[in-house]
Each structure stands twice: as C-alpha cells, then as structure tokens.
User: Which sequence fits this backbone?
C-alpha cells in the first residue's frame, strides 16, 4: 500500500529529505529547513515475514527498493508543486533500530533476511551467553554497553547468524562478510554499494548493538570477544550529524547524506527534547519512552536501558538518555486486523473501542515477543484475562488500547524511580497518537497530561534536523526557538487515582500470568492454545498467540 500527500510551496528554498525506514513501512518526507514545514511525502508499506513462531524477518532488498521508490515518488510530488528538487540540500536517515542485516561485500547481496528487532529466535542464544558470562547474569555487560543481554539487540542476532547461517560463515572466512543495522545497509547501497559504498553507522544505532562502549563511543574489544564478533565486519562509527557520503544514483545523485539517527532518538530530537529531564514517548509498532539525561550515561536500577540520545556533530558533546522499550504496541492493533479479522483497517480500532465505556474486566498483555522493559522476560507470551460471555470484540479493542497505556505507565514508573524527578507531562508522537481515544486513556491511566503535537511526524523531522545542521550543509539552526513553538493538543486525566491504581494492579496480575509460559527447550516450538478458569476471579485466561476458540464468539458479538 502506498500513499502520497502534498502541500503548497515555492522554489528557492533550502529543503531536507528525511528517509524514515520503519518496521511497517518506508517513507520519505521533505521539509523546509527554515520553517520545519512538511511539504510532501511518499510511503510504502513493507511485508513482514514469519518463518516460524517468534521469528520476524524482512527482505533487505525490499527495504532498499522501497526507500528508492519513496525518494523518486516524493520528488515527483515536489515537481507537481512547482518546487525544484535541486533545492534538496541533504538527506537524513532514521531507521528501525537493532534490526540486523548481513551481506557480501563483493556481490552486495544479502546473505540472509534481515532479522527484525522484535524477533525472539535468539532466546537460547541469550541463555548460553548468560551462562558463559563470569557473573552468569543478563546485566553483566551493562557497565560497558548500557544494555542487558536480551533477544532485542543486534549482537545477539549476529551471533545467531554466525552460528546458524552457512553463507555467513563462508563469507566471514573469505573476508567478505559485512554487518550493519538498517541505516548501514541503506547508506552503503545509496553511496555506491560494491563501487565504493560507505560502511558507516552513527552512535545512536551503534549503542543498540551491545558491541559499542557507550562511554568511549568505539567498538569495544571486550564486548566483541564476548560475542566472538570480528571488528573487521562492523561499520565505522560516526556522529549523528555529518556528511557520510553522497548519493551515487537516481534523482538525488550527488546530494549528501548528512544525518543518521535511530528512530526513537530521532523522535527525541524532533520533539526538541534538548534539555536534561525532558522526555517523549513514541507509539509505533512498539512503544519507546526516552528521557534526556544530559551528558551523563545513567545506569538504570529498574530495568531501563542506557543509550546514546544524539551527538549532533563530530565535535559536539554526546547526550545520553534512559529508555523504556515495549515490543508490542501498534503491532497488537495489526494483530487484531490481520490475525483475528476483528477490524478491517488499523484506524477502525478507535471506533470499535468507543462503543464501550470500559473493558468490563478484560485485560490484554500482548507479550508476543516476550516482555521488554522493565521485565526482560523472553519466555512470556500473549495473555488475555477476564473473558466472560458478556465480552465482545469492542471490549478486546479497548483492552488493546489500555495495554499500550499500561505498558507506558510501567515505563513511567521505572523512569521516575531512576531519575528521582517524576515526569509531570508526557510528550507523545508516532502513528498511534492519531487515535484520540488512546491518548485520553493514556492520560487517565498515567495520571499526567499527555501532549500531542499537531504535526506528528517528529521522527522524520528529527532526521531532517540532524542532516540540515551538519557541518558542510548548515541550513538548519537548532538554536532557533521557533522550532519549539509547536501547536499541540493536551489530554488531561479524568479518572480518580484510586481507579487508575486499582486497574493497574489488576493489569499486573495479568502480566504475572503471561510470564514463564514457554519452557527453555520450547522457545522455537509452536504452542497450543490453553483455556483455563482462574479462580477465585471466575476469569477465562488465554495464553499464547492463538485465539481461534474465541474469535467466532467475539466477532458475533
């Protein structure tokens, strides 16, 4: 599926193109650097591949071709608006993080499908790595990389590929193996590929691999030895705003690529969260809360991640953040649409959920890829509690929106404990924020105002800002106070503290039921659906991915 959008404009502007390569789609958006106005965009939906339960892949060639298509189409849109595409001064890239690509440096061809960030095939690899560590604990590497050993991160996926992909081992033996996250794969191809392509990444993406020393911003020898990964296959680490190379072919040939940010860090920049203590939450395929900690790499004691927020230039200071990551947010809505057929389009969930005033005791824990922050339980699985004969698809739709909000409250609680300074309002962005009912539910369950920008494309905007401010481009002034004067909508809490606490307590009971569902030896096996009655609540509880027994009942109600 593709979509186009255009707005008015005139020639002679300094324009920046932002490539926003996400889990569900690729987009190219073109901004006016003097006003941050979005002029036009093109979007193409991507296919996710599920070879086995818990495995999530994408075709790297499809990712690349979708980006190239979006560039061409967005430039066509500019021409239709009588704007000269030669006004595009630079390109910024923001990308789904942790998704892992390996390819052959001689042929340029991928050696395996991209393993997507929410893939959990590496659960056994994680267990082995933890057992091989001196402390035998998932946090044994936190002091170096800021991250726990978990299925989420790129080094674990790369280790799995080296252990299980014959083509990867052969390429490694012949010094032809290249590794990168999606930004590296795109930049290498866009700057020439086998004919001199630049093998680079930025500090934000590198900080999600478990291979970069988060304090030194370099590939760490100790970390590389731990994962048995040769440094020779890794891209060069650069800042988030500098000229990495120039596009070699196509309509933007010769234009510099001068900004790279992981998608969540790009949203932090796009929301202008440049001060320590500012935070934003992005609602996309997953849900990601980032809290700016300034120049300090704060180590979390409550299950959060320490990450690089941005480094906007070679000689600029490095800003860090605490991050709370939730694997399944918008993906749960997509599951209702594609797997259960309860809705026809993702936007239908708001209308469906509005038909009921509460979930009437129905709680949904969408732990399809285990539980991320603050639990880090890879053996958890999706759970729906509280079904009765009264429950229908409207209650399940509302429970899905509440699940996103409850997971965000978990992140806020952890963030408040780590920082010691409670977050008093929540800045939000991402595709799901178009759902006003979700935003109101979030305000109610978090107990703080939720602030939504009128222009929700803050992830792409952040990439454009990074590219535009790079030395040698210099068409975007991040000190311009006008950038922070963004029109917003604010959602205020409408329920009592007792009500939200009671509902959160019951949510936590559902979370407990989702944990430790998959035995270690069964991480990659199909699970049968189990239906039980859970006294004393008189609840029906569904575990696992399947709900075939209940779908007909829900759809008929």
Assistant:
């Amino acid at each position: 599926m593709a979509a186009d959008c255009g707005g008015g404009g005139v020639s002679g502007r300094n324009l920046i193109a932002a490539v926003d390569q996400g889990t569900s789609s690729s987009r190219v958006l073109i901004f006016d650097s003097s006003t941050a106005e979005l002029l036009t965009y093109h979007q193409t939906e991507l296919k996710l591949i599920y070879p086995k339960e818990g495995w999530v892949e994408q075709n790297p060639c499809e990712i690349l071709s979708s980006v190239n298509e979006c560039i061409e189409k967005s430039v066509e849109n500019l021409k239709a608006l009588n704007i000269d595409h030669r006004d595009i001064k630079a390109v910024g890239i923001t990308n789904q993080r942790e998704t892992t690509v390996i390819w052959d440096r001689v042929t340029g061809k991928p050696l395996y499908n991209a393993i997507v960030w929410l893939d959990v095939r590496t659960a056994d690899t994680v267990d082995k790595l933890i057992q091989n560590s001196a402390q035998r604990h998932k946090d044994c590497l936190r002091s170096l990389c800021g991250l726990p050993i978990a299925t989420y991160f790129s080094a674990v996926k790369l280790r799995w590929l080296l252990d299980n992909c014959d083509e990867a081992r052969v390429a490694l033996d012949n010094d032809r193996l290249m590794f990168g996250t999606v930004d590296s794969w795109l930049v290498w191809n866009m700057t020439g590929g086998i004919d001199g392509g630049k093998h680079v990444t930025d500090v934000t993406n590198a900080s999600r691999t478990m291979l970069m020393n988060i304090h030194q911003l370099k590939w760490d020898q100790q970390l590389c030895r731990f994962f048995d990964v040769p440094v020779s296959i890794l891209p060069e680490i650069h800042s988030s705003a500098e000229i990495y190379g120039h596009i070699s072919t196509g309509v933007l040939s010769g234009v510099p690529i001068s900004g790279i940010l992981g998608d969540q860090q790009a949203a932090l920049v796009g929301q202008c969260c440049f001060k320590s203590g500012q935070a934003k939450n992005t609602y996309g395929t997953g849900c990601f809360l980032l809290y700016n900690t300034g120049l300090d790499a704060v180590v979390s004691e409550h299950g959060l991640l320490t990450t690089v927020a941005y480094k906007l230039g070679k000689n600029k200071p490095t800003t860090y953040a605490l991050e709370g990551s939730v694997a399944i947010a918008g993906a749960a809505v997509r599951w209702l649409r594609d797997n259960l057929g309860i809705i026809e389009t993702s936007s239908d969930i708001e209308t469906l959920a509005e038909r009921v005033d509460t979930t009437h005791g129905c709680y949904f824990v969408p732990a399809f890829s285990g539980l991320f922050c603050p639990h880090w339980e890879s053996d958890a699985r999706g759970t729906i509690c509280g079904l009765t004969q009264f429950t229908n698809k409207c209650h399940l739709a509302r429970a899905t929106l509440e699940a996103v909000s409850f997971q965000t409250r978990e992140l806020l609680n952890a963030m408040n404990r780590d920082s010691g300074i409670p977050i008093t309002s929540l800045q939000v962005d991402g595709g799901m924020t178009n759902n006003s009912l979700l935003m109101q539910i979030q305000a109610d369950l978090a107990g703080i105002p939720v602030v939504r920008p009128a222009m929700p494309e803050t992830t792409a905007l952040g990439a454009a800002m990074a590219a535009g401010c790079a030395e040698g481009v210099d068409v975007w002034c991040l000190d311009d106070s006008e950038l922070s004067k963004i029109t917003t909508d604010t959602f205020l809490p409408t329920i009592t503290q007792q009500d939200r606490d009671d509902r959160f307590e019951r949510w936590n009971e559902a979370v407990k039921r989702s944990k430790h569902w998959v035995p270690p030896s069964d991480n990659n096996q199909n699970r049968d659906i189990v239906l039980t009655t859970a006294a004393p609540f008189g609840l029906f509880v569904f575990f696992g991915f399947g709900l075939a027994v209940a779908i007909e009942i829900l759809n008929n109600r």
User: Anything to note?
Assistant: Residues 1-10, 523-554 have pLDDT under 50 and may be disordered.
